[in-house]
TrEMBL record:
It comes from the Bacteria. Pfam families: NnrS. The chain crosses the membrane at residues 59-80, 116-135, 147-166, 172-196, 216-235, 241-259, 271-292, 304-325, 337-359, 365-386. The lineage of its organism: Bacteria, Pseudomonadati, Pseudomonadota, Alphaproteobacteria, Hyphomicrobiales. The keyword Transmembrane applies. The keyword Repressor does not apply. This is NnrS protein involved in response to NO. InterPro entries: NnrS. Keywords: Membrane, Transmembrane, Transmembrane helix.
């Protein structure tokens, strides 16, 4: 007698164990541990004056690990966990999932000890492997989401290869790092533009609010078009007058859109955290506008870290926290610890953005910001680990 789908799914989860029972869990856990470890390592490298890490200048390595290491892992965990919504099939788990995670871990460690060519290939293998899995799901799916992911991961592979090849050219490496960050910011603007108002609408309606965010419409399309043009300008010529004007316009539009979502009425901390991630997007765009010539009022590094440590760091953790606290039959993340983790990451991002503006006195802010930001990700990893004991499998 054939096994029922429900029984097969239950047995598959038991055999996979806690870590590999759901795609988000290993990727979110290891991405958080990676973020928690790599930032203090970078500060130590910066203070010690090392000349090279993994065949790259230290600053380029730091950017590479955040943009082409951390971000793809979070994206993979989110997209692979969402595939049942598109295909009706069980998500990856067990040994196939462990294989994907091993490829990602190899990309983080092998380049540290292997020849440059080997490290380059191993690093690019993960996004290509995820693209292959998403291609398989796209064939079975009836929606376009998996195809969107399928397009993104080959681009991340190409970006990772190019970033390593041009690591010695500061200008090109910086442009490629900005490009990777811009992709993350555009994802926040596009996906967040649908997800955040939808969740806000549900939360406010459940509380009896009369005025709720408007559905996604033409204004959101305009915001994305102007925002995309502004990000393209920031990537290609961040100091130009045209880029500055586009960034200023995008800042205003993002701010108006965020205000239309009425986040100040929320009582749900998990949804409010998503609003904070979008607020960092506004801050980053505004600082990028102020860093352009004219007015050149703030250091460009402040805008870059408002985008990376602020918008990407906070929004990815907010998404991870919500997903890990609400999904997974073998245990949920500890919501209380995740909330504290989000507070630490926000505080760390504030100090990291402020550090370049402090001039010669920037080092204490840099170290404190790194400690808070990485501490937040370490705490989130603990929230996932202790969540298993908090809500054991049945």
């Amino acid at each position: 007698m054939p096994m029922s789908p429900a029984l097969a799914a239950s047995r598959s989860r038991r055999e996979a164990g806690w870590l590999f029972a759901a795609p988000f869990r290993p990727f979110f856990l290891f991405a958080s541990l990676h973020a928690a470890a790599s930032v203090p390592v970078w500060v130590w490298i910066y203070v010690s004056g090392a000349n090279e890490v993994a065949h790259m200048p230290p600053l380029v390595w730091h950017a590479h690990e955040m943009v082409f290491g951390y971000l793809p892992a979070v994206m993979a965990g989110y997209l692979l966990s969402s595939t049942p919504n598109w295909t009706g099939r069980l998500p990856a788990s067990g040994w196939p999932l462990a294989g994907l995670v091993s490829i990602w871990l190899a990309g983080r460690t092998v380049p540290l000890v292997a020849p440059a060519a080997v490290g380059l290939l191993v690093d690019a293998a993960f996004p290509l492997a995820v693209a292959f899995v998403l291609m398989r799901e796209a064939r079975a799916g009836r929606a376009a989401q998996s195809r969107h992911g399928l397009m993104l991961f080959p681009l991340l592979a190409a970006g990772s290869i190019a970033h390593r090849l041009f690591a010695g050219d500061h200008d090109v490496a910086s442009l490629l790092a900005r490009l990777g960050i811009a992709v993350g910011i555009l994802l926040i603007a596009a996906v967040g533009g649908r997800l955040v108002p939808s969740l806000t609408r549900n939360a406010l309606a459940a509380g009896g609010a009369e005025r709720v965010p408007e559905p996604y419409g033409r204004f959101d399309v305009v915001v994305l078009l102007i925002g995309s043009a502004a990000l393209a300008g920031w990537v290609a010529a961040p100091a130009s007058v045209i880029s500055g004007a586009l960034l200023a316009a995008a800042t205003l539009l993002h701010l108006v859109r965020l205000a239309r979502w009425r986040g100040w009425l929320l009582r749900a901390a998990d949804v409010l955290a998503l609003h904070l991630g979008c607020l960092w997007l506004v801050v980053g765009t505004g600082l990028a506008a102020l860093a352009a010539d004219p007015p050149g009022a703030v250091p460009p590094d402040a805008a870059l870290h408002a985008f990376s440590a602020g918008a990407i760091g906070v929004m990815t953790m907010a998404v991870m926290a919500r997903l890990a606290a609400t999904r997974g039959v073998t245990g949920h993340a500890r919501a209380d610890l995740a909330l504290w983790a989000l507070g630490l990451v926000n505080a760390g991002a504030v100090l990291r953005v402020a550090a370049p503006m402090a001039g010669v006195d920037h080092l204490p802010l840099l170290v404190a910001g790194a400690a808070l930001w990485s501490g937040g990700f370490a705490l989130f990893a603990l929230a996932m680990i202790f969540g298993r004991k908090h809500r054991p499998a049945r």
